């Protein structure tokens, strides 16, 4: 307790002298960046940090594409699949808190580099994990890495651009978030099998398609790591830490890069024009040893965490922190909740349509017949008689035998899905190389049946009646509509301001949620999702930018990390809640979305505009 209190007081003391000096440093940084210019350097940095942001979307979406295939090979139950989806959010929450503080202590570039390396390393390791337990562990670590990178990406990039252009540049950066989603959907379309039966056949290969997909999806993180290796530290961070000489070197490097076609040009500002003061040498720097290896960085970041974190809940930042927290929670709850509801509701609509077209046969008699190299699909046999019937190399999909008699039959090399025998008389049958396990016989009379060489592997009942084409299409269209929404936002962000765009976008999204009531077809759901994402993404982008600009340099990524971590919790809660709404009235997701987003819109109006803030 004594150490925590001491750290908090130390943080408060630092706040006192930082506040007196930050405006001068911010103005100098703004002048220095303006003179360094905007050009090739910022464009290259946009690409590098954009890859980092794309990796975040990939991390969020990749599990949804992998689960249908991985559940067969890793034999995952419904609960285990749920935890696999949640573990990414848990990892992101942990990473955001740790690396947010780390970035404010040891530097933007170094912290971002280590976070993305963790994500890339464990992301590719996940593809080779043979069991559910270690697969979950690597997914957690991968989530921790990318969760740690997100708070840093925005701060790192915005500290290299001028105040008048900041909103537009950060909006361009956010385009990569949507591009990451499009990349994931396209790679899934190309690599992963598109039907349930092809998923099962794919598992026979030594290295399944979904594992290849995971390897490909780790490439943007590796690309970002390589690019960041050649990028400089944020000059604004260096100024904040009293490392003026290093900061000036970075400014000159940016200037030289942007004026490569004018070799005679010289950078005008010098260290002599830096603001001076008797307190500047007291500025807090990491102790010796920090910055030399990853372990020392993490250890130092954790030691300094509370001193920075508690400042968020002290004047003058308390009100801003609480208002942004509410807006983040409402946005994440509504957006991630609907992101789960849309695809699941499409599956429900297709399932209902499939069931309506079921073929029902009553009291049919099948004797001395053979079903060879064929498929029995979506059939309900009621009081049927099967005698001396051979089923060979047959797929039995969604077939129900009710009050039927199956006797003296041969089932050889048969694969089944969602197929059950209920209240049946099952006598003297032979089952060879099949997956017709005991649980498929429910309240049946079993007499002298022989089971030989049941299919090895997972005994869970995998649904063959899944067509991933619709899932890929729905996600692809939803992500594509975010790109024009973000580009339009980039034109308005600096003119209208963050708060106005945020509140209008969330209010319109809240109103549009009432149209959920009219969604009764797959096409309707996809069109609505596209329109909703187009409207909502503007507010989300404005929130990202405002959260970056609302806090001073020394706690900028700590604050964003805390808000990002809290949003992950809200995202998990939203996913769980909306997952329960699938089979209920559409009024529940409609009202839940509308209410939470309207609360966020109203609260956002209380925020101070940040577009004129100097960093």
Could you characterize the architecture of this molecule?
The chain has 615 residues and is an alpha/beta fold. Helices cover 63% and strands 10% of the residues. It contains 19 helices and 15 strands. Strands 1, 3, 4, 6, 7, 9, 10, 12, 13 and 15 form a ten-stranded parallel sheet that branches. The protein has a five-stranded parallel sheet with strand order 2-5-8-11-14, with no helix packed on it. Helix 3 packs across helix 12 (294-309) and helix 16 (498-512) packs antiparallel against helix 19 (587-604). The chain is elongated and about 100 Å long. Mean pLDDT is 85; it is low at 1-20 and 277-283.
Record keyword descriptors for this entry.
19 helices, alpha/beta, 615 residues, disordered N terminus, five-stranded parallel beta sheet, ten-stranded parallel beta sheet
